[in-house]
Amino acid sequence: MSQEVDRYIEAATRSNTRRSYRAAIEHFEVSWGGFLPATSETIARYLADHAGVLSANTLKTRLAALAQWHLSQGFPDPTKAPVVRQVLKGIRFLHPRQEKQASPLQLQELEQCVIWLEQGIRASTDLPTRRRCLRDRALLLIGFWRAFRSDELCRLEIEFIAVTPGKRMAIYLPWSKVDRDNRGQTYQAPALARLCPVQAYQDWCDEMRETKGPVFRGVDRWGHVAAQALHPHSVIPLLRKILKGAGLPAERYSSHSLRRGFATWATRNGWDQKSLMSYVGWRDPKSALRYVEASGGFSRETAHALLQQ
Questions:
Q1: Spatial distance between the Cα atoms of 139 and 261, rounded to a whole number of angstroms
Q2: Which single residue of 46, 243, 245, 272 could bond 250 by disulfide (Cβ 3.0 to 4.6 Å)?
Q3: Omega before residue 237 within 30° of 0, cis
Q4: Direct distance between the N- and C-terminal alpha carbons of the chain, in angstroms, rounded to an integer
Q5: Which CATH superfamily is domain 3-94 in?
Q6: What is the pLDDT of residue 28?
Q7: Contact yes or no for 66/38 (Cβ under 8 A)
Q8: The whole model's pTM is what?
Q9: Would you say domain 107-255 falls under CATH 1.10.443.10?
Q10: What number of other Cβ atoms are within 10 A of residue 122's Cβ?
């Protein structure tokens, strides 16, 4: 194939997916000592050797990488063999693991963070601190109200955002995890009386004085705003630094906390599942349920109330 064809094939696969698949193939060949192309029996042994060490979800990702390698090289996919499926099912049964989930950032906790950042904006006498606080307030509020992932926040571009002051902002993303065909999607965020993502975005853009390029960028110790976007991996430490400054237990939260926080808030405020899925962009109801923190439930208090009836 020509270099142009290879370039478009590579562009069709997400960069995170490519890195993950390369690491998986390297682990199979180098760390474990497997040979490619592989047989279904070899892959079943690979799974068995890592049962209890790697989670079933991680092993599924490894299988996806191996399947992609075989298909792209013109070989039959050995991961679909019954023996491989049975071994993976057995691993799930004998090595159950509770899925770890970040705590949702509740609305009152979001407000606590924003208050702390606004104190930094007003009280700061140095440019770096002021600019970081303005950037972080916009990142928090857009991330929460639009339930964006960290990679989506880091890919926001100024020229793809249209603001109607006092009303709304329209955010265009050329591609996202759920946009498999790269058709792009526009997300709306309303202007609010408080905790407003629109005003926070405008304040940050006024501070940057940029008309194009990434929205969220690094700020160095002299207050210079970088030309490059923040890396998605930097969002978790950035978020935890804000939480710690606001007096919250930072270790409980990750970048998914914004997404989970919004989903939980929306559900508790009467959004039905279809509306929530449409707003966030979920296609699978199971994905939506994973992000919603259950409320109520059977507790000592509810049991006591029932017994008094």
A1: 14
A2: 243
A3: no
A4: 75
A5: Tyrosine recombinase, N-terminal domain (1.10.150.130)
A6: 95
A7: yes
A8: 0.73
A9: yes
A10: 9
